[in-house]
């Protein structure tokens, strides 16, 4: 493996680069949150999701579609850790915002509904 970077190293490098850019704007980079989730570092990912959510909740309307994206991603994170009631709570919020703000065929809303059904079946 000489000369090649492991996937973990590449993902961490990507997260660090995104972090530098986001620091300038005072935001937590979405890619960093997803990187940690993909690496199955769920505790770190959750910390970043919660920080990102707090920032967005302070700056955006309660029904802003960007919040739905974060809620959905948090739901997927909780689903990955088998915390299905928390997963359902967050995806339900994503669906509610999506139904209010997006068309019924919007890809995000379709995905939120699919995640909701997948989560509901686990309970």
UniProtKB/TrEMBL annotation:
Domain of life according to the entry: Eukaryota
Keyword tRNA processing: no
SUPFAM superfamilies: TPR-like (SSF48452)
InterPro entries cross-referenced by the UniProt entry: TPR-like_helical_dom_sf (IPR011990), TPR_rpt (IPR019734)
Keywords: Repeat, TPR repeat
Repeat region (TPR), residues: 68-101
Protein name, per record: Tetratricopeptide repeat protein
Species this chain originates from: Rotaria socialis
Higher taxonomy: Eukaryota, Metazoa, Spiralia, Gnathifera, Rotifera
């Amino acid at each position: 493996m000489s000369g090649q970077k492991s996937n973990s190293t590449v993902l961490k490098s990507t997260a660090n680069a995104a972090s530098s850019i986001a620091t300038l704007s005072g935001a937590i980079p979405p890619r960093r949150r997803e990187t940690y989730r993909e690496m199955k570092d769920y505790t770190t990912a959750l910390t970043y999701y919660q920080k990102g959510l707090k920032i967005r909740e302070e700056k955006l309307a309660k029904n802003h579609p960007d919040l739905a994206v974060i809620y959905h991603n948090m739901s997927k994170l909780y689903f990955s850790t088998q915390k299905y009631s928390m997963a359902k709570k967050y995806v339900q919020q994503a669906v509610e915002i999506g139904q209010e703000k997006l068309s019924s065929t919007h890809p995000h809303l379709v995905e939120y509904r699919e995640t909701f059904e997948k989560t509901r079946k686990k309970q």
